[in-house]
Amino acid sequence: MAVLLASGLFLTGCTATGNPPHSHSPDDVIKAATQKLTDDCLARQGLVPPRPGQPAPSSVEQRRVSDALFGSGEAELSLRLPTGYVVRAHTDGCLAAAQQRLYGDQRRWFRTSVIVNNLRPEAEKTHCSLAEVRSRHRAEIAEWQRLRAHGLVEATSLLTAKGKPSA
């Protein structure tokens, strides 16, 4: 649930601007494209994307938006980290669709991003240096870099396209 909440916070905390994507960091470009894709997906379902400062929707509406955004039912993706923590995600939902669109392979993105984003906790848990842990995960880091580069190209294209549907 914490992963879902953190994802929701990043989605509601950033907004796409009219500025060209190249004037922002790669993280900002990818976040803006993710938000555009998820907002469009929610809107197609007749749902209002969550935003800070909006009146709180009913608990039923919050559940509908959460299910549409993050998926529902049992999570299809799961990865146990060396720390013992298990990260789960859905392959349905607007966020999964956005990741598929941006990275070209949502399952690979899930796996590599979870591993790469948890290198420091792994180092702490295994009492190894961060350099040693990075060395053990060279393949995952390289895959993350490839997928991230693909995501940045897709995000830039999406944000600079005028009048094209975002799928």
Write the SSE topology.
Layout: H1 2-13, H2 26-44, H3 59-70, E1 77-80, E2 86-89, H4 94-103, H5 106-116, H6 119-126, H7 130-136, H8 138-160
Helix pairs in contact: 2-4, 2-8, 4-8, 5-8, 6-7
Description:
The protein is mostly helical. The protein is 61% helix and 5% strand. Strands 1-2 form a two-stranded antiparallel ribbon. It is globular, with a radius of gyration of 17 Å. The model is unreliable at 1-22 (pLDDT under 50).
Features:
about 170 residues; mainly alpha; two-stranded antiparallel sheet; 8 helices
- The N- and C-terminal alpha carbons lie at a distance of 27 Å
Report the principal-axis shape: globular
| Major sheet summary line | 2 strands, antiparallel
Mean pLDDT: 86
Strand content of the residues, in percent? under 5%
Compute the number of helices. Answer: 8
User: What order do the helices and strands follow?
Assistant: HHHEEHHHHH
Q: Spans of 5+ residues with little confidence (pLDDT < 50)?
A: 1-22
Kindly name the structural category. Answer: mainly alpha
Strand runs, count: 2
Strand order of the largest sheet: 1-2
Helicity, as a percent range = 55-70%
Radius of gyration, Cα only, in angstroms?
A: 17 Å
